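Repro:
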Amino acid sequence: MERLRVLVTRRWPEEVERALADRFDVTLNETDEPLSQQRLAAAMDEFDILCPTVFDRIDADVIGGGDRVRLIANYGVGFDHIDLEAARAKNIAVTNTPGVLTDATADIAMTLLLMAARRAGEGERELRSGRWDGWRPTHLIGSALRGKVLGLVGFGRIGIATAMRAKHGFGMKIAYYARREADADIAAGLDAEFHPELSSLLAASDFVSLHVPGGEDTAGLIDAEAISAMKASAYLINTARGGVIDHEALADALSTGRIAGAGLDVYPQEPQIPAALLGLENVVLLPHLGSANSETRIAMGMKALANAEAFARGEALPDLIA
């Protein structure tokens, strides 16, 4: 029986690429260069399964490029880069890779929190440039974590995993804002305080960490008004989606001392970084490292593979989102 044709838009871990090649007629992106919108659109008429990443923009024009693709098996949990309505209109299934990124992303949230609080990025830049002239009592004073309030915007799996690290590892107090209160046992185990209003959480928090999905509902959620509700001594951490923050408003707040600092791993138009942030010392900027450990990246690929295999067998897709 003829094997289904699969296009993988970027390089995946070797173990996953080998597993895909064992089961499908796979075309790999050997150069690992981003594919153009025109190439992606043409692929819709050449392949049975498209395996994009969160970097690929699978919009209506791409989806309308052909009628052969029947499954978009996304490598990543976020899917705001895929036009789900256009996919539904053409009866194309869309899957993602939930559950396997939780610990890795929570680790990066804490990395950013620690780096921002302890001014680690500033310190490394000073040292590498040869500007460090020795220890002194008032040099690069940051913030302690113990006893400080970590306010989580969104309290799903990653938010809860971040809260566990902060509470049990660093002695922080936990508060959260979400559409509904968390399970009573989870909230009790973290002694987590629920805030039904975002402004209330922002005002109460020493550190604010974002853990909400992308999309129209959360676009610009942290705007100038929201930032104005934060403490002047507060730090903002984002490992969710770049579009959740108004970066011009954030840059203004950071440059004027309206808030103490920030740590970002995601941006609205990656790989471009908002220019207003690049010259600021009090923001830590990471290149979308949330899932970047080998175990997680392999697990993500295996999730995508499992969805492709289920599709090939005509079975229910384990991670169907549309």
